[in-house]
């Protein structure tokens, strides 16, 4: 039975802490803004303005919802200070627009008016940026990294060194080094510290250095692991984690090249579907699809007209194109999208779209960048072929190829494909076999942990893709 850990699903303890700290920062911004605004308006200093209201809480939660949608509760966000400021600026700007332009014109949203909202939004921008860049990044207020060591220096252990090099990859843990084990095929650790310990020395090192987690990454475990030391660590409350679980927790993907059958059998997750869950999923997806269609039908009509005027009028090609895709349980269905490529784009056969693809039309790049080309798939959702969230549906010829090439690739078809997905959020544009392997790791993570709340989180985060033009 594999060594495992208690997974925190998708709402990590540090994310919850960050959420509540952001709430406090935004409440302080409302308080400072209200005091400053009322002091100017009434020429009297009121240290306790009327801010303990439901409206204030709703205003703050609206800002936090937008922060979530722009990825600012992603603990491993790979952004510079400038990138974080840009995201906070967009979030504050959107919340200001929603409150000032929409809410205040419809409801009495006390204690806010147009000027106080502008002042509070400016203060929120400053305080949130200072908090994220200075306080959070410097590990104050409890954002302390776990101290870890890795048992193993071979092929499995080297994945941590190769794939988790960035500061953002190690935001939750401090890696003290790797410990060589008899079961390693060869030593592949090149840049990190490597220790040669017997069991007694290993125990002393772990205790003296306050190690909180030991990651098992030996290439061969049978009769090679320091079992007495691991037993003592467990008794002391030190966490023992299999490398597959460690990578899953820290990266949000499942390392399919490391999986062994007993890990799948004994691990939590991979819940079965039932008729009730499927019905709830369909009505949720169909209702949301109808709502978006009502909002976007002018964009749909305008897009069709632009494609026709761009090249459809000359070539006689349709504004839509139809392709076969593989759906749930391997069932093939037809998908429709706005045509973003030339009519002869596949004259030499099927191939993946790539970044800056020369087959893209003049407006096609814009359509793909902001996901407008995928709006006709709302009708696939209404038909039940797809959901809003799930693995990206691929063409049968690609599926046939990758089932024989990538371990566990066929398992991504155990759920309905989706417009948005965990892989689309977490992995950049790619069209190679290696890119497909990386995306499968995220797809399997989604399948293992999927739930209504996880779907909602992915949908909210997909706004980041649309706002920053990261469509792929």
TrEMBL record:
The chain crosses the membrane at residues 20-39, 51-73, 85-109, 115-136, 282-305. It is a multi-pass membrane protein. Keywords: Membrane, Transferase, Transmembrane, Transmembrane helix. GO terms for cellular component: membrane. One of its GO terms (molecular function) is phosphotransferase activity, for other substituted phosphate groups. Residues 284-467 form the Bacterial sugar transferase domain. It is found in: Membrane. Gene3D superfamilies: NAD(P)-binding Rossmann-like Domain. Belongs to the bacterial sugar transferase family. This is Undecaprenyl-phosphate N-acetylgalactosaminyl 1-phosphate transferase. It comes from Saliniradius amylolyticus. The lineage of its organism: Bacteria, Pseudomonadati, Pseudomonadota, Gammaproteobacteria, Alteromonadales.
